[in-house]
């Protein structure tokens, strides 16, 4: 930042006032007299559009990237208001003094499951753990539903400060590609960064796979300070690319990867059934086994990621082996019922995630696989036929319905999806998700398995611009009672 674009004296004076408790806002509607307003631009609006509202509400300081009239409020120019907000958040919450170790997890699939597994592993080892992720923001004594996978910059620093005050040892955070690109995690000193995988998603935002991968790579190349450990999936092609360019790292995966020179945690799947899996882990000269009721190769990979984090934080093989791993909400979550039906709900909403979970179920000797799925509206349209192809590849019956249609016509979404369903043995179309679930339950016979994919832990459905209560798990439970009593 040069003196020609920023008055260093004014900026430093503002930082000192914020350190003393001056409030900072990024929403002009929340501004109160005397506050600082940072004009951050979004994908649709320029941040300066909201300055008049901030001034009307009494803002005393305006931080923005361009010259404009601010009346009696002091204008402070900054070439990047997002970076300015980072410095202001650190000043206000003193997060540069935090002793909490921070683990960031990025990837298309597996972030939530991996965060839960790390939480269970570290808690079992006696650590106090905080988690910020898709399901909730939580630490001992606090929990709230998560409005975003990764909080905004100001809220993130606020929560880190609260965790530090609560003596949390480790914060585990899911880091979305949007959050990385929008600099929401700037100013966070990650102790380790995890990459689960990179498959197609969010191309409506990033444009193409390379740009999407570059956004994920920011967690390793830009945000962690020098020397922070990368924990990267060597089974994933993008992961192998990253392992060759980022050091120090632990590569993890099922099988071996002899061409990589980094430290490696290798897993061998001894058995995988409908009852669980048995894995052998090898790291250098050490080896140990994990026996868990988790099912699926993809969950084997998630377990390896969590174990690699444990190794990085100094846990011994004995501690890793001793941990009991429990289920994760909405991730191959079994819906228990009095009729003995094998029914699972899963958050799979990308082609790769759906293929992973369906291939798992297909390999577990069920007579038939019945899948309820749909695609979200106002999102990447190119993945719609790919979702259909994944469903048809492994399903004996594919039930096509709505997910979160948002402002799109559900029938138009279904038309886009239908293109990929030419190879389905049997299809059912029902735009109403509740009715689709009922039709799937009616279709079940002894020995079948039903997967309801796409929403997982979510307890709502977005139709138009409004959320309405909707839980796949509750809906299928209600359907069973209605049909079978």
TrEMBL record:
N6-carboxylysine carried by residues: 216
One Gene Ontology term of the molecular function aspect: ATP binding
One Pfam match: Mur_ligase
Every Mur ligase N-terminal catalytic domain range: 23-68
Cofactor: Mg(2+)
Motif (Meso-diaminopimelate recognition motif): 403-406
Role noted for this protein: Catalyzes the addition of meso-diaminopimelic acid to the nucleotide precursor UDP-N-acetylmuramoyl-L-alanyl-D-glutamate (UMAG) in the biosynthesis of bacterial cell-wall peptidoglycan.
Family of the protein in this entry: Belongs to the MurCDEF family. MurE subfamily.
The name this protein goes by in its record: UDP-N-acetylmuramoyl-L-alanyl-D-glutamate--2,6-diaminopimelate ligase
Organism field: Desulfovibrio gilichinskyi
Gene name tied to this protein: murE
């Amino acid at each position: 930042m040069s003196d020609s674009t920023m008055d260093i004296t004014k900026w430093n004076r503002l930082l000192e006032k914020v350190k003393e408790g001056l409030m900072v806002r990024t929403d002009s509607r929340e501004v109160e007299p005397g506050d600082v307003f940072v004009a951050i631009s979004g994908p649709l609006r320029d941040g300066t559009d909201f300055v008049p509202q901030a001034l009307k509400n009494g803002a005393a300081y305006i931080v923005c990237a361009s010259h404009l009239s601010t009346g009696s409020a002091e204008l402070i120019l900054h070439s990047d208001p997002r970076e300015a907000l980072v410095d202001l958040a650190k000043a206000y919450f003193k997060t540069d003094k935090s002793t909490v170790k921070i683990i960031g997890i990025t990837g298309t699939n597996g972030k939530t499951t991996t965060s839960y597994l790390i939480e269970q592993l570290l808690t079992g080892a006696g650590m106090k753990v905080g988690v910020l992720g898709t399901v909730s923001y939580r630490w001992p004594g606090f929990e709230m539903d998560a409005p975003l996978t990764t909080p905004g910059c100001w809220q993130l620093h606020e929560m880190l400060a609260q965790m530090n005050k609560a003596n949390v040892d480790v914060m585990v955070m899911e880091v979305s590609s949007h959050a990385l690109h929008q600099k929401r995690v700037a100013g966070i000193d990650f102790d380790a960064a995890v990459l689960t995988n990179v498959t197609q998603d969010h191309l409506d935002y990033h444009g193409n796979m390379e740009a999407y991968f570059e956004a994920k790579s920011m967690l390793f190349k830009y945000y962690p300070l020098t020397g922070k450990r990368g924990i990267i999936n060597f089974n994933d092609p993008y992961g192998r690319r990253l392992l060759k360019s980022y050091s120090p790292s632990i590569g993890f995966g099922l099988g071996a990867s002899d061409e990589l020179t980094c430290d490696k945690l290798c897993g061998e799947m001894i058995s995988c059934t409908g009852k669980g899996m048995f894995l052998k882990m090898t790291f250098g000269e050490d080896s140990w086994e994990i026996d868990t009721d988790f099912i699926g190769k993809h969950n084997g990979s998630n377990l390896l990621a969590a174990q690699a984090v444990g190794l990085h934080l100094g846990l011994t093989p004995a501690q890793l082996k001793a941990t009991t791993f429990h289920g994760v909400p909405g991730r191959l979550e079994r819906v228990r019922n009095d009729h003995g039906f094998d029914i699972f709900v899963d958050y799979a909403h990308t082609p790769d995630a759906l293929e992973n979970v369906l291939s798992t179920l297909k390999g577990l000797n069920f007579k038939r696989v019945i899948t309820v799925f749909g695609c979200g509206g106002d999102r990447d349209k190119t993945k719609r036929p790919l979702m259909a192809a994944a469903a048809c590849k492994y399903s004996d019956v594919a039930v096509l319905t709505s997910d979160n249609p948002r402002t799109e016509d559900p029938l138009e979404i279904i038309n886009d999806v239908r293109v990929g369903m030419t190879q389905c043995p049997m299809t059912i179309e029902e735009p109403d998700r509740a009715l689709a679930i009922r039709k799937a339950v009616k279709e079940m016979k002894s020995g079948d398995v039903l997967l309801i994919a796409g929403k997982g832990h979510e307890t709502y459905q977005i139709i138009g611009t409004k959320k309405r209560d909707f839980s796949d798990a509750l809906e299928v439970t209600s359907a069973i009672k209605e049909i079978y009593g």
